[in-house]
């Protein structure tokens, strides 16, 4: 059950054949309202409970971030920043995790066919059976999200609970959130919801409040409402204008068709050479000379 | 297996040609279907319950394996907020969201335990033993310390030497019963997280 048919796949790593989209699936999105988050970590608990993940017990590093970073068994982590604005302390708490980009750098960088798929509903999912553990997705991701597991050398990250969404439920984190800071729905309705929140924040003196839906990666299916949308880097280094690294873009973008043409040309040249010159014949004299070479066996 | 130079070049060349051809899109057409993780609650039994942690008493749904048939031993596999519960409407706090580990905790007390005076550790005992022992201790203490009237003759009906800590993750009706039962004994120190 819960199998998504071929037509529901929008994009697939390292594949030339991507099926044409005939049906139009509902594009989903998760909206994280940083101004409503109290940092309780219910989302982290719910994520681990749903996905059957139990990271090893870590150590207290003196900050609230726990675990301290994303990991193969910690797909979402609250990041706490103490920020002073006009003499007032602001506690900016951001739920970090996969942003489910419309133009995913991980998928672009991935060399293994079908290890990363993008569904028509916008979810970018890792298919561990096809993963070769090369780590290119880590380099390709503008948000530094994927992590390679030491147990099976495969890449893991938030799936946006693709298994729940496939049967019409919301992701576990969005369902659990007790303050309603995480909401889930169609991308359109989430943008709508965000506009209401932004208006409210602006009326409370956060005149730079706004939606974080970076266009450098074609927009995302996990969006933030930020009180300081003009300075996203305040929120534990959320990139201001995230883009796929130029190396990945060049290697998998402009260079890929060129190298394909190059390989094709080499094949054709080889064929022409074979037709016009024929195979390289070795005469008996050559063999004789070879045998005479010192220290060489006649093969 | 020994390979000479010429065979090595031949094999290598074939391999390069093969991968190139497949990279150029010649090889077999792969199936591009992708499968998400199978939905793990498809046929679990859902049981409504109340989160045992705090006085907010959020509604939870406990998912157990099997359909309740005679030869199946149910096992709790997942706990999630109850969307129909008016208190939390599906949401939970980090503790409530991690209830599964609370249920499966190795240190969880699953039966009455008793540490007799002078003994080092707890021993499992029967409910009958517990009921009898608690009743005996309550009766003895109440008989010894119950104050029916104050020194100037006013009616008190106080039992000031025993406190009662009640469960909080209960319904209004259970809370009412708790209050009536405990107060009728004369206990003054009655409390739980729900402040009944």
TrEMBL record, chain B:
**Gene Ontology biological process terms in this record:** anaerobic respiration
Q: Name one GO cellular component term.
A: cell envelope
Q: Where mainly found?
A: other
Q: Where do the 4Fe-4S Mo/W bis-MGD-type domain residues begin and end?
A: 44-107
Protein keywords: 4Fe-4S, Iron, Iron-sulfur, Metal-binding, Oxidoreductase
Q: Sorted alphabetically, which PROSITE patterns does this protein's record hold?
A: 4FE4S_MOW_BIS_MGD, MOLYBDOPTERIN_PROK_1, TAT
The places in or outside the cell where this protein is found are:
Cell envelope
Q: Which InterPro entries match?
A: Mopterin_OxRdtase_4Fe-4S_dom (IPR006963), MopterinOxRdtase_cofactor_BS (IPR027467), TAT_signal (IPR006311)
Q: Which cofactor does it need?
A: [4Fe-4S] cluster
The GO molecular function terms of this record are: 4 iron, 4 sulfur cluster binding; electron transfer activity; molybdenum ion binding; oxidoreductase activity
Q: Which Pfam families match?
A: Molybdop_Fe4S4
SUPFAM superfamilies, A to Z: Formate dehydrogenase/DMSO reductase, domains 1-3
Q: Does the keyword Iron apply?
A: yes
Looking up PANTHER family in the UniProt record yields: FORMATE DEHYDROGENASE-O MAJOR SUBUNIT (PTHR43598:SF1), TUNGSTEN-CONTAINING FORMYLMETHANOFURAN DEHYDROGENASE 2 SUBUNIT B (PTHR43598)
**Assigned protein family:** Belongs to the prokaryotic molybdopterin-containing oxidoreductase family.
This chain's protein is named: Sulfate ABC transporter substrate-binding protein
UniProt source species: Magnetospirillum moscoviense
């Amino acid at each position: 059950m819960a199998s998504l048919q071929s037509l529901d796949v929008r994009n697939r790593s390292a594949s030339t054949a991507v099926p044409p989209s005939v049906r139009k699936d509902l594009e989903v999105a998760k909206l994280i309202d940083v101004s409503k988050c109290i940092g309780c970590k219910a989302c982290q608990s719910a994520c681990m409970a749903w996905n059957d993940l139990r990271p090893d017990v870590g150590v207290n590093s003196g900050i609230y971030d726990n675990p301290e970073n994303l990991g193969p068994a910690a797909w979402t982590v609250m990041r706490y920043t103490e920020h002073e604005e006009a003499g007032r302390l602001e506690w900016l708490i951001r739920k970090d995790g996969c942003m489910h980009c419309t133009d995913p750098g991980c998928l672009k960088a991935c060399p293994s066919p079908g290890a990363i798929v993008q569904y028509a509903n916008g979810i970018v999912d890792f298919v561990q059976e096809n993963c070769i553990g090369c780590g290119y997705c880590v380099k390709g991701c503008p948000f530094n999200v994927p992590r390679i597991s030491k147990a099976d050398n495969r890449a893991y990250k938030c799936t946006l609970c693709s298994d729940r969404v496939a049967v019409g439920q919301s992701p576990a984190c969005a369902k659990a959130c007790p303050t309603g800071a995480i909401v889930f729905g169609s991308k359109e309705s989430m943008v709508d919801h965000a506009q209401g929140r932004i208006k409210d924040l602006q009326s409370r003196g956060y005149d730079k409040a706004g939606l974080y839906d970076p266009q450098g990666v074609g927009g995302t299916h996990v969006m933030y409402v930020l009180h300081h949308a003009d300075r996203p880097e305040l929120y534990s280094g959320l990139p201001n204008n995230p883009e796929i690294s130029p190396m990945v873009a060049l290697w998998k973008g402009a260079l890929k068709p060129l190298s394909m043409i190059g390989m094709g040309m080499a094949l054709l040249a080889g064929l022409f050479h074979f037709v016009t010159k024929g195979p390289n014949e070795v005469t008996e004299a050559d063999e004789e000379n070879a045998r005479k070479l010192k220290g060489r066996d006649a093969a | 297996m020994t390979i000479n130079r010429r065979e090595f070049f031949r094999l290598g060349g074939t391999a390069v040609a093969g991968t190139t051809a497949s990279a150029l899109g010649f090889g077999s057409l792969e199936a591009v279907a992708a499968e998400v993780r199978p939905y793990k609650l498809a046929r679990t039994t859902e049981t409504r319950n109340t989160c045992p942690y705090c006085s907010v008493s959020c509604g939870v749904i406990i998912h157990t394996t099997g359909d309740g048939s005679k030869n199946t031993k149910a096992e709790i596999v997942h706990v999630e907020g109850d969307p129909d519960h008016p208190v939390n409407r599906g949401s939970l706090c980090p503790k409530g969201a991690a209830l599964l580990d609370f249920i499966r905790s190795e240190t969880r007390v699953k039966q009455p335990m008793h540490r007799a005076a002078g003994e080092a550790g707890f021993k499992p005992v029967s409910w009958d033993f517990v009921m009898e022992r608690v009743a005996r201790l309550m009766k003895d203490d109440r008989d010894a310390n119950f104050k029916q009237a104050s020194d100037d003759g006013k009616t008190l009906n106080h039992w000031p030497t025993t406190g009662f800590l009640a469960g909080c993750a209960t319904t209004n009706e259970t809370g009412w019963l708790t209050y009536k039962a405990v107060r009728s004994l004369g206990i003054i120190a009655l409390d739980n997280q729900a402040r009944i």
